[in-house]
From TrEMBL, chain A:
It is a multi-pass membrane protein. The chain crosses the membrane at residues 21-39, 45-64, 96-114, 126-145, 176-196, 203-221, 227-247, 259-278. Belongs to the NqrB/RnfD family. This is Ion-translocating oxidoreductase complex subunit D. The complex is composed of six subunits: RnfA, RnfB, RnfC, RnfD, RnfE and RnfG. It is an enzyme of class 7 (translocase). Its cofactor is FMN. It is found in: Cell membrane. NCBIfam families: rnfD.
From TrEMBL, chain B:
Residues 357-386, 395-426 form the 4Fe-4S ferredoxin-type domain. This is Ion-translocating oxidoreductase complex subunit C. It is an enzyme of class 7 (translocase). Keywords: 4Fe-4S, Cell membrane, Electron transport, Iron, Iron-sulfur, Membrane, Metal-binding, Repeat, Translocase, Transport. It is found in: Cell membrane. It comes from Sellimonas caecigallum. The gene is rsxC. The lineage of its organism: Bacteria, Bacillati, Bacillota, Clostridia, Lachnospirales.
Amino acid sequence: MNEQFNISASPHIRAKDSTGSIMMWVIIALLPTTLFGIWNFRDQNAWILVVVTVAAAVLTEFIYEKLMHKKVTISDFSAAVTGLLLALNLPPSAPWWMGVLGSVFAILVVKQLFGGLGQNFMNPALAARCFLLISFTGRMTSFTYDGITGATPLATMRADGSIANVDTMNMFIGQIPGTIGETSTIAIMIGAIILLLKGIIDLRIPGTYLVTFVIFITIFGGHGFDWQFITAHLCGGGIMLGAWFMATDYVTSPITKKGQIIYGILLGVLTGLFRLFGGSAEGVSYAIIISNILVPLIEKVTLPKPFGKGGEK
Amino acid sequence: MGLLTFKGGIHPNDGKSLAKDKAIVEILPKGDLVYPLSQHIGAPASPIVKVGDQVLKGQKIAEAGGFVSAPVYSSVSGKVKAIAPNFTPTGGKVNSIVIENDGEYTEAEKLATKPLEELTKEEILNLIADAGIVGMGGAGFPTRVKLSPKEPDKIDYVIANCAECEPYITADYRRMMENPEELVSGMKVILRLFDNAKGVFAVEDNKPDCIAKLEELTKGEPRMEVAKLMTKYPQGGERQLIYAVTKRAINSSMLPADVGCVVDNVETIINIHHAVINGRPSIERVVTVSGDGVNEPGNFKVPFGISQRELVEAAGGLKEETQKIISGGPMMGFAMFTLDVPVTKTSSSILCLTKDEVAMYEPGACINCGRCIEACPSRLIPSRLADYAERHDEKAFEKEFGVECMECGSCSYVCPARRQLKQAIGSMRKIALANRKKK
């Protein structure tokens, strides 16, 4: 018989989850809000923007890796996740070429030029969104819903200084103007529950983020502990999509457990600051990318103590 | 009371159902027997026989090469054929005594022993040393040294490691099912050495039948108890086991005795029983042969020195498609390139797999998911330590406590990018430890 046996260092068995399967689950978890967004903004053909943006992200990764003679890694789905997240962060009225430009920026500049998967110091989708926001402020902040171009509920609240003109139920379901993937809290929550149940994310980052944010706006929001006000803030803007799908991005969040708590608190404070006192009604994207930059520092001060070295048992 | 455990760890598919219910079968060797002179940690044993000498079963053929060392006994009667380097399961060549089996099993005189009550502590320790007993769970540390801490009175726990947390292996399980009296008797011997200690049989809760058996047997023993552990890998790691039972934590530079503990595994304790009560040196053990690559998985009682090929043939032989053969368990065992190696004092299992999961996947980039941190029982950051190792950054490796790694392999197991984390950390750790010694 053939007596050629394989040799390798232990361990000789492996768990089932792979990078590809994790990314696949993130895509599956994003489907409810994606499909809702496509339906919600069907009058503006949001589906075209989603498809073009995802395709551009995957294609950019493919072409760059081919040209650089690197191993093509599109089968790990990470480029697809980036493209999808970017699409969900675009207004449905954005032209297709903005999706393409954003995807190329995300994959080429933010991800590949820094060394590819695992090496980017900022969430590529959010960095691209901020890039587009700065470059095309008008187009990126014009939201049309049901044929009417108007302010998002968050902007309305900020302009009025009250919650009189917003309907929190509509905000919860998602029938409001906004970016393609951020409007429906319920659809995002379904995805978040999928990720929590699959063990892909845990509550450490999103939990501390949202709790800190609620505490912050309760203290500084000028409404005290007003349940309506808090709900409107949680269901409005990008905080739900950001907290569950972008702040939890493995690559750009701290790897240490204590660091994740600090990171969540930082996100909550920054988002509250930007929303209440900043120049625009929104603040999630900037809060996340600023916190991304602080991750190495956070990790440095939260290095865990090894077992038996006087740390927690 | 909840189950005792530690933080971290993994839950691999345990594969134990393959051999769990197969009673221990005794095998007599047909071919030559090979006894490596270094089957333990410490100085190699030195041969006291010459080529051509006639030896008996249970006759000492090599004596301890120092205090931290262990003698070697012949497990058959026959003629010394050669004293030459031979391959061992870990892949290296070690000077070994080869004995041609005459098939008679003529026994040598037993070790001089007395009833337990009449033995002094010194006599017990000497018997254990003389019998050549070493830690048979895999480390091979001479048991006599382990049982001689500086202050024996400060030892308050003697823990029998009955966790058997490595997947597939069922040798200790069968021992507990079939020879629990010998295990309890061996514990009694160890407790004689430590007046202030209680004996704890620490068993994972996936072996309720063993727990019941041991509880029954220790009913009338005020100094013994059974502890139920959560089933989790590496529950049987010494540091994890001590923590689970006593809530005392030790690090890489401490010994169990520093926190009042002595830990021995099932097979070792049974060998202690045979040496001290029956005067029989350490010449045999139970080995599990399992995995989907072997035709009839089972548990076998075999003399040391028997060829692993003979043992696998006794288990129905290998299947055609077998890709990988492992000495030990799938988490910490050694992949072997040949079956022509002997069963040694530390061979707990031969695992034959038709699928090499390591070869199936190519390592990718770290995505910082933190699963390795979650799994690491030593609470390190394996992904980062592996980066340092790959860059050979010894300073950073030391600073982030790389030497605290115990190479359990949990990080490599969970890594979704399939990085060879343990391999990288393990090799850097060896270098760092060697450089520490130089200083």
